[in-house]
Write a structure and sequence with these properties.
With 74 residues, the protein is an alpha+beta fold. The chain is 46% helix and 15% strand. The protein is built from 3 helices and 3 strands. Strands 1-3-2 form a 3-stranded antiparallel β-sheet. β2 and β3 form a beta hairpin. α1 packs across α2. The chain is globular.
């Protein structure tokens, strides 16, 4: 059984990836791949979607169905 991720690791990976896009947006699948790559282990897309949904509109903006950017990154 794999060790659990530390609190904030998924959050930080999502935020860093979206910050790197500047004003652009990304699909949940693109974000999930970036998070998996950064953390070096598979992160379920459901975890990424859940974090995005819980933190929209406070931290993220939904630009269209399944696409997000950092809030204020216009």
């Amino acid at each position: 059984m794999a060790a659990r991720l530390k609190p904030g690791q998924v959050r930080d990976a999502i935020t860093d990836f979206l910050r790197g896009l500047g004003p652009g947006d990304a699909s949940v699948a693109e974000i999930q791949r970036a998070v998996t790559e950064r953390l070096g282990r598979e992160v379920p897309s459901s975890s990424v979607r859940s974090y995005l949904n819980k933190n929209t509109p406070a931290s993220f903006a939904r630009t269209s169905r399944g696409r997000y950017r950092l809030e204020g990154a216009e």
